[in-house]
Amino acid sequence: MEPDAVMYGSLAKFAVKAGRPELSRELFSKAEGGGRGLKNYMWAIRSAGQEGDLDRAVDTFRQLQQSLPETIDVMSYNIVIDVCVSNKDMPRALGLLAEMRQRYQLNLVTYNTLMKGHCIAGDIGAARGVLREMEEAGFVPDVASFSCLLSGAAKAEDFDAIWATIAEMDRRRLRPDSYIISIMMQVSRRTSNTAEALRALTVLDRPDVKICEDEVAFNTALDACIFRRDRARLERAIGAYDHSQVQASVRTYGLLIKACSILRRTSRCQEFWRDMVEVRRLPPNDICLGCMIDALVEGHLVDDALALFQEWKAHVKCDTILYSTLIKGFASAGDADRAMAIYRDMQSSGVRMNHIAYTALINAHARKGLMKRAEALFEDMEKDGCKPNAITYSSFIRGHCVRGDLSAALRCFQRMLDGGFSADCVIFNTLLDGCVQAANFELADEVLEEMKAHEVEPSNYTWSILIKMWSKRGELDRAFEVLRA
């Protein structure tokens, strides 16, 4: 039995929505014998647009004009114009628009599509010109109209235009939809302007904003609040989720777990994991598994993290980040042997190390004064092409100080400076504390002078070391001076 034009059209629609343009193209070709309907052509045009093949998209539209001229309408033109603007070809879109104006009256969708095209091209002025033309033609802009303007302003990081657009929507009593919310969350997530990033998050405080009405909006809101470590809004988002009908995807579960980890609610992370895996029977991906393992490590449940890793290792691709999280967990717990076991597992699995994992391993050994092992790991690190950072050197300095080998600590300090790294307060505190522990007060004075020369401000921990130093030197007056300071 051969499918008819209607069935081919439906199949092509599903192929395009599933991101399978090659299948849609094949279905369009097969539909020729059974008679192609308008829908077949429309989905073929969209499919060509997905592949970025504008020539094929426009050629298909021309075929439609020749084969079924009576079916051509405003919607047909809108679709092919949208394909052009989405692929950043405004000249071709404007050419089709001029052709369209000769036959039909533009509608709201046409104007919104043109605004979208100008915004994609970065021409906000032209987009606003289309908005004025739209109103002069008697059309009332809708939320989609302002979404186009907002998206363009966000792309340009034009904060005045962003807030002017929001204010104009408020004046027209247009409630922000999920797309508006997503744009504002992307602004918060991407901008380097912290003040504007936090201001963008205030959109979530509006009574007319319901983030749980759409999973995409909810995910972008969670992601932005996680990135900005906004615990108060994360609490509210989790509360809203609990009273919503949202059917979480694996991505959403990963974000929920990450959010609860930031809120130090490890047990809630475990609840979300069980709901996903046991109740909903959704298999995790590598990102979601990584979020859960990180949450367990942050909650000091490293054994549970390892058990979860072992359970899913055969089913989920475990990458460098996931292994690094486990290594850091055991390193932070002072368990250098188990951290090394993960390292060996990583090597046998063919997963590349990164500087974070190496630094964690080196730190685990250095904290116990196991400097030979730390040095061997440093050699492996260099062989793997992983460059050390200031934290790596700080771990070595701490390890040498633990062993009381101040000469080696200072050599490592100089090596760090020669490598182009700046010494921070933590490193100076490590050196200073090592000197005081070894009662090498002359060297401690030299470290203090170096600290001044590098213009490093002392921390509270620095002051506590100085009080201890002057007390050990028997100069209690100096100790009290530091205390008063």
From TrEMBL:
What is the species of this protein?
A: Zooxanthella nutricula
**What start and end residues bound the annotated signal peptide?**
none
Cited PANTHER family: PENTATRICOPEPTIDE REPEAT-CONTAINING PROTEIN 4, MITOCHONDRIAL-RELATED, RESPIRATORY COMPLEX I CHAPERONE (CIA84), PUTATIVE (AFU_ORTHOLOGUE AFUA_2G06020)-RELATED
Q: Which domain of life is it from?
A: Eukaryota
Q: Which GO terms describe its molecular function?
A: mRNA binding
PPR repeat ranges, renumbered to this chain: 73-103, 107-141, 142-176, 319-353, 354-388, 389-423, 424-458
The protein here is known as Pentacotripeptide-repeat region of PRORP domain-containing protein
